[in-house]
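Dear support,

We are seeing what looks like truncated structure output for some complexes. This example has two components. We would appreciate it if you could run it in full and send us the complete token output so we can diff it against ours.
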Amino acid sequence: MPDPSPIDDAELVRRLQDGDERAFRDLVRSLHGVLVKLAMAFVGSRGAAEEVVQDTWMAVIAGIDRFEGRSSVRTWIGHVLVNRAKTRGARERRAVPFSSLSPEDEGPIEPERFSARGFWSSPPAAWDRAQEAAVLQREACAQIERELAALPSAQATIVMLRDVEGWSAEEVSAALEVTDANQRVLLHRGRARLRAALERYHSGGAR
Amino acid sequence: MVTCRQATELMTDEREGKLEGARARGYRIHMFICGHCRAYRRQLGVTIDASRGVPREEVPPAALDELVAAFRARRGRPGPDGGGGGG
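Here is the complete output from our reference environment:
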């Protein structure tokens, strides 16, 4: 999908401050889905997440004059959302998902695929060109989408922002206030699980 | 000696440009000699490429209209073609 917001941030902010409805509409279209998923990492239900997103857009409309350009627009909006979602999540007594990572959590690859000494005992079968190409087709994308929905929310959120939406590591760190090291661990685990889903897809007879 | 298990754990650090020093050297040597880990790394790359194709969730039209109405009420003036279409 081509980048839906070809204008740069300074121009976008100018248009929003100017009351340009088209610019606002495009911004909502480009960010709404990701904001809902982001909110769902913090709050208990889809309905609560949608309310947080709605509140966030209202705050953006009211606060666009105060945007200082120290981060990207989407990072700023993401950060506004995360603050609101955290408050809401705390009210619901939910743990903050990005701070609860323990290093001894199991790695993303099934341990039985390695020998006791840490070398592959059940190595990955190389994917041939046809299999690599198939991964980019709709069916495989649906597989990824399903696995993404099944990931722990912190992993899913990071993978979605980085790999689906194309945010930079810096943007994600700024929006989520997650450390770089935690971000990399979560990203790695999430990607590894998506890879495993594609591996299952291939071994399920798809060519 | 970096094991396969350790090498797979370092692949995102490598991709993010965060693999340095002795860890980087051990990792590079391992990757040079281990075809399985090279296959795994390649598959991670293919997975990342494939993730880009996951469709974006659309905002429901009613919610979009509501937000645009709020924007209009607060920010005043419609854009060049913001008033078109109606509905």
